[in-house]
Design brief:
Strand order of the largest sheet of chain A: 6-7-8-3-9-10-12-11
Shape of chain B: globular
Number of strands of chain B: 12
Helix content of chain B: 25-40%
Order of helices and strands of chain B: EEEHEEHEHHHHEHEHEEHHHEE
Mean pLDDT of chain B: 90
Bound molecules: adenosine-5'-triphosphate, iron/sulfur cluster, magnesium ion
Structural class of chain A: alpha/beta
Largest sheet of chain B: 8 strands, mixed
Oligomer: heterodimer
Number of helices of chain B: 11
Radius of gyration of chain A: 21 Å
Structural class of chain B: alpha/beta
Radius of gyration of chain B: 21 Å
Largest sheet of chain A: 8 strands, mixed
Mean pLDDT of chain A: 92
Low-confidence stretches of chain A: none
Number of helices of chain A: 10
Distance between the termini of chain A: 26 Å
Helix content of chain A: 25-40%
Strand order of the largest sheet of chain B: 6-7-8-3-9-10-12-11
Order of helices and strands of chain A: EEEHEEHEHHHHEHEHEEHHEE
Strand content of chain B: 15-25%
Strand content of chain A: 15-25%
Largest interface: A-B, 46 and 46 residues
Chain lengths: 324, 344
């Protein structure tokens, strides 16, 4: 692998809450090469969004503890001061969300908001910024883009708003795009349009991308590699085709077996994973999947050792990959 | 599994219509109407599962709510075993309707009363229908056990003390407590994680066998619909555009919209990645739906006739029906094709 664009080591994020600490992320390792797409895959509450927000340091500082290391384009994100952070956000790393209204201010037009971002990061004139905004709306294939510059976010359909948010995020040509379920709320026919658009823009601009999803099919559509999370940890990571063809971790195996895919025999019951993911209000030193794991043995209740690399794949399970 | 269906359908839906007012003028009169459901008809036979698919806002939930009479239809009729239900002369009352038909919603939290224990939530419905309190409680315990929640552990809990999957099991138990014949599942497993969704789908299949249930299964997950359904109905902007047996409809969709929908499902392996999107643009606004065939602005096969004439829902082959001029010889479409000419 060439010099990594993003390198996360043993990331831990703990929130203070009224009910006590929440161990939302508890040992995440991630690698992202230039131009590469990584799908961050996992079920609700496993820490995908918390991980993404950590990369941009978007958590409220007073109630969040972040440990471990995050390097983006060679820089230490956790050591950055306010000035460096504001250069990082938008210019080096940009983010798109499931809900585009999070990215837009409802009282300004789409054009004003893209112009403002471009001016802030590139210091160019108003006219140049407007030209860039128009170019971006055209690039994300928004019909009658010139007219849409003066539209307010609520005047657009869901799919159009999603495109506009992508235009905003990409307007300063970030090196890394963090996409947090940007297509989950879209209809199937619109989702595939937006996925293909993102891939095309990524190729053109040479960006790296981390794409958060809980949908295995979506991960397959966009990703070169995947990292699978469970209860705040990355438990498996590797090239998407090899992980999908031969998952190693019992959770990844269970997840794929439980997912309905086309042409399945309807008379056969699905292979459900019993139980449900744990609460994160307690620190879980052992493997958090143990209560649901069919391979669990006594030593699975000891503290979980760090992840192991095996070729181009990473595994976080006490059983060696060769046991599968 | 295409066993011949018995002749009389359990549920008959005839020409349902519902327009919602959108915005009001100075005098409080509706300025515009959302044509949410526009002449929907279908039959469901006993013991079958009808899957209902279509993009957001196409009227799936409105159809379900009309069937349950949670909202009043503007027009249309519902018959169960030939009996008409709803308001009006000679119709059976709504409590009787809800004894036959129950519904489970997507949002497991919003559909449970936060101040009732799980036991009281489940026992509530049977009591309304005249079951004695003690018997209703016993029934609640039975059903909890049946949906895989240990009664002793869960009976005194409140909704916020359950996970999403557990709450959805409670909702299913609650729907079954009245012993309905028909259960409408409106995105009932959509909010659940895949590992938990599989548990609930298995449970639904078991309960269906055990209680001889008939399901209406509404979902945007086309893979899940294929797995659970016997028949599938495709809606677009308030209308049915195609329906038929699941295997036929998935292997050879008739309507261009059905085809586009199925071709938008994400790939299963990296080798099958989609190269281009089949459809451009978003679904149009239901306030002013396009004239003629409502799909014509997005349809790759549209001809002038499509913008003028509304295509009727007609049988094309076997039990597959579709509303498309291109498949109807007398429609005025210039290059009508036969079923055999359609690519699989
Ligand atoms: N600001 C916060 N304060 C306290 N707890 C939080 C905060 N943000 C997230 N959490 C908790 O951290 C855990 C991980 O949340 P996260 O949003 O990362 O999940 P996710 O994997 O993105 O799930 P989803 O697929 O539902 O979006 C959850 O238990 C969540 O409740
Ligand atoms: N009570 C209401 N008042 C006004 N408009 C409504 C009301 N309920 C639904 N609508 C509108 O009717 C149309 C059909 O909505 P419906 O909820 O039936 O769609 P759906 O197919 O269930 O969509 P989804 O997949 O998003 O659940 C939409 O345009 C919706 O905005
Ligand atoms: S560490 Fe043990 S419990 Fe955890 S996944 Fe591996 S075998 Fe299962
Ligand atoms: S009627 Fe015309 S526009 Fe409508 S689906 Fe058929 S070919 Fe397309
Ligand atoms: Mg999230
Ligand atoms: Mg709905």
């Amino acid at each position: 692998m060439s010099h990594p664009m993003v390198e996360v080591r043993d990331l831990r994020v703990t929130f203070r809450s009224e009910e006590g600490p929440i161990y939302a992320v508890d040992g995440v390792d991630l690698d992202l090469a230039p131009g590469e797409t990584l799908a961050l895959l996992g079920e609700s509450g496993c820490g995908k969004s918390v991980t993404m927000k950590s990369l941009m340091r978007l958590h409220p500082a007073h109630k969040t503890r972040i440990e471990g290391s995050i390097r983006i384009a060679g820089e230490d994100v956790l050591a950055m001061n306010a000035g460096a952070l504001s250069r990082l956000r938008g210019k080096t790393v940009a983010m798109v969300f499931q809900e585009p209204m999070l990215a837009f201010d409802p009282v300004f037009t789409i054009g004003e908001q893209i112009c403002e971002a471009v001016r802030r990061h590139e210091g160019c004139s108003g006219a140049d910024a407007r030209a860039r905004a128009l170019e971006m709306l055209e690039r994300v294939q928004i019909p009658s883009a010139r007219k849409r510059l003066d539209a307010y976010p609520h005047e657009m359909s869901g799919g159009m708003r999603q495109r506009a948010m992508i235009a905003l995020a990409l307007s300063c040509q970030p090196k890394v795009l963090l996409a947090d379920e940007p297509t989950t709320a879209l209809d199937a026919t619109v989702q595939i349009q937006v996925l293909l658009l993102l891939k095309e823009l990524q190729r053109e601009m040479g960006m790296s991308m981390i794409f958060v999803t809980h949908d295995v099919g979506v991960a397959i559509e966009v990703a070169d590699r995947t990292a699978v999370m469970y209860a705040g940890r990355v438990i498996e990571q590797g090239p998407i085709d090899s992980v999908m063809r031969a998952p190693w971790h019992p959770y990844t195996q269970g997840l794929l077996a439980a997912t309905v895919h086309p042409g399945m025999d309807r008379r056969q019951a699905l292979n459900a994973i019993p139980g449900s993911p744990p609460q994160l209000t307690r620190r879980i030193p052992e493997c958090a999947f143990a209560p649901r794991c069919t391979l669990a043995s006594a030593s699975c209740h000891d503290p979980l050792p760090p992840a192991r690399m095996d070729g181009d794949r990473l595994l976080r399970c006490i059983q060696p990959a060769s046991a599968r | 599994m295409n066993t011949p269906t018995p002749s009389a359908p359990l549920l008959q839906v005839l020409d349902l219509k519902k327009h919602f007012p959108a915005g009001r003028d100075f005098f409080g009169r509706p300025r515009q109407w959302v044509r949410a459901v526009e002449g929907v008809s279908f039959d469901v036979h006993r013991g079958r599962t009808l899957g209902i698919v279509g993009e957001s806002g196409c009227g799936k939930s409105t159809t379900a709510r009309l069937l349950m009479h949670l909202i009043e239809p503007d027009e249309g009729r519902i018959r169960i075993r030939g009996q008409a239900f709803g308001h009006g002369v000679g119709r059976h009352p709504l409590t009787a309707l809800r004894k036959h038909m129950q519904m489970v919603f997507q949002d497991s939290y919003a559909s449970l009363n936060p101040r009732l224990t799980i036991e009281d939530s489940i026992a509530f419905g049977p009591q309304i229908h005249g079951v004695a309190a003690n018997a209703a409680r016993a029934l609640a315990r039975d059903l909890l056990d049946r949906v895989g929640l240990k009664p002793d552990v869960f009976i005194r809990r409140y909704p916020h003390e359950l996970s999403g999957g557990q709450r959805q099991r409670v909702n299913i138990a609650r729907a079954l407590a009245i012993r309905p014949e028909i259960v409408i599942l409106d995105e009932a497993v959509s909010a659940l994680d895949k590992s938990v969704q599989a548990q609930v789908l298995n449970l639904l299949a078991e309960l269906k066998r055990e209680f001889d249930l008939t399901y209406l299964f509404i979902s945007h997950d086309l893979n899940v619909v294929q797995y659970v359904s016997d028949e599938v109905m495709v809606m677009y902007l308030g209308q049915v555009v195609e329906s038929g047996p699941v295997a036929e409809l998935y292997s050879r969709p008739l309507h261009p919209y059905t085809r586009a929908l199925l071709e938008s499902v994400p790939a299963q392996t990296p080798g099958e990645r989609r190269q281009h999107a089949v459809l451009e643009g978003d679904p149009p606004n239901p306030i002013a739906p396009p004239a003629g065939c409502r799909f014509h602005p997005r349809c790759p096969h549209a001809e002038p006739v499509c913008a003028q004439q509304v295509p009727a829902l007609r049988r094309v082959t076997g039990q597959q029906v579709a509303a498309c001029h291109r498949l109807q010889p007398d429609s005025g479409y210039s290059r009508v094709i036969t079923f055999e000419e359609l690519p699989a």
